[in-house]
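Here is one record:
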Amino acid sequence: METWKETRGRTATWGCLDERVLTPKVLGIYENPLPLTVEAVRVRSRKMDLRIPFETSFGRFDSLVRLYPEITFRTEDGRRVTGVGECSPLSAPWYDYECHRSVATALGYLVASLTGKPVEEADGVASGKEPPVTDVLSFTSRYRWIVGHPMAKAGMEGAYWDGVARLRGVSVSSLWGGTRKAVLTGTSVGLEPTVEALMDKVDRAVREMEVVRVKVKVKPGRDLAYLDAIRNRYPDLPLQVDANAAYDLFDPAHLALLKDFDRFGLLMIEQPGRNDDILDHARQLAHLSTPICLDESILHAVHARQAIQLWKEHSHPSRLVVNIKPPRVGGYLEAIRIARLCCDNGVSVWCGGMHESALGKTANVHFSSRDEVDLPGDHVSQAPYFVRNVGSSPEYRRGRLTVPSGAGWGIEDLDLGD
């Protein structure tokens, strides 16, 4: 079993910077040739209570709404199969412009596009006039006209992959060219009011959970003292920080703080500057020794290409890391394209989380089975997110999650309710 040190920073293979050539065939993704007629599309919605409410500057949230697109396909010989995906928006548009209300609206347009009816008449039952789909490109072309709304698109694409995998009796990861039977995983520790409170959570992550790396949230005033405490107790712990855009890249005091992070031997500093920025991260932080990770800044493969080009100009692509969240980039094909583009140019990638239910978390594990994903992801938490989940998560043991081998997502006890 490889470790994070063995996977990180693989040598670039061919250095292509044209995302257009990264077709499913080039990426090693299964290209379904079997005509599949969309018979029905249904969207299930579940309000899921959080075990521990989370607070933001504008409110407190006790629950999250998860939406699950289900698609029933019919083959030419009359067989039927149903696949399901997950949309995992937050309760308000504070991470990006999406929330469960906007995702539900966008899903209405996707359902209309897939069933061949105007959105005002879309009831989830196909019109019977639309031709079958085959590979993932023919499927997504049905709703390519819709601008933005990546989370709705990711959930719908997930339903396609689950359906095709179930039809073939194989796991989704095998369709995606995944090679790992288990993936390395870390955990994320949120902002805490005191150093002692933070260390309690770090201790649990290291000693009880045995994760292979820890990520801690930071912001000005809650950074250096916290990192000092972690490093004094765990000098060799693989450690990274997530700033959630809390630092001003043109404030000398903030730049000095970020430079001081170099002494902690961090894996990366995640999204220190503005969520919508690519240029200034490369231009303003090229002098840091610690790699810079872009999260919210990367919405698709074009952004990834632009970021790679900028880091080649201002520093070196090995100083760049990309956090790929399939719901943020519009789906799994786009996530794999970004991962391949990064890997081929010496940029490390990992898979972040969006408070997904067991289905979405499992999908992330399938994605992380690809070779290009060479850093541990945020796949486990210190406490369950939800009072009641929709199924069991992949088996976890000592920093590794088993990639399910069953058909589709491989969740045997999935229960989405009525």
In short: The two ends are 41 Å apart (CA to CA).
